[in-house]
Amino acid sequence: MSHWQADDENSATAADDSASEPDVTTPQATGARGRRVGLRTVVTGLLLALSLATSVVFVWQAHTRHQLDAAREQALQAAKDYAVVLTTLDVTNIDANYRDTLAGATGKFKDDYSQGSSQMRQILIDNHASGTGIVVDAAVKSATPTRVEVLLFVDQSITNAANPSPRIDRNRIDMTMDLVGGRWLASNVEIL
């Protein structure tokens, strides 16, 4: 047998031996690879869940901000309109003025205004008093989706029997508006 043949036989035997012996590195490599794939899947799932949760938070915040902006805008306009109702008075139409004032009020303010209105009504009639209010400026001080506090600057032109020439009163009003039954109503009014 030549030297080359012996090497070929040894190579063939070595190849046969390696084919018949189990590969001890394969399960370890597969296990490590499997753990890496599993870890990647878990990490990807966690990142996806985190991304989804973040998106939900952003959508919720945008919705809440939109609700608050809408509340501010609606309550501010309602407060301006109501300030004109409060500061405009015509003795020839005083009952309608009081009805409009009570229709825009709620809570303790409505109760207090209702109790004092009968005495005030007679004083205004006896003195032939009238007034016209104009909102010069207004701003929201604080707001929630159901309660908004507004600061108003209102000029009121007042006349009466003793002084028929108009006098201008510059009123500063702090008004709290509450959302009641889908309407913004004044729950507190303070002249500053």
From TrEMBL:
Any one annotated GO CC term: membrane
This protein's record includes keyword Transmembrane: yes
Entry-linked PANTHER family: OUTER MEMBRANE PROTEIN RV1973
Keyword Transmembrane among record annotations: yes
Keyword line: Membrane, Transmembrane, Transmembrane helix
Annotated TM spans: 37-60
Protein name: Mce protein
Region (Disordered): 1-33
Compartments in which it is found: Membrane
Superkingdom: Bacteria
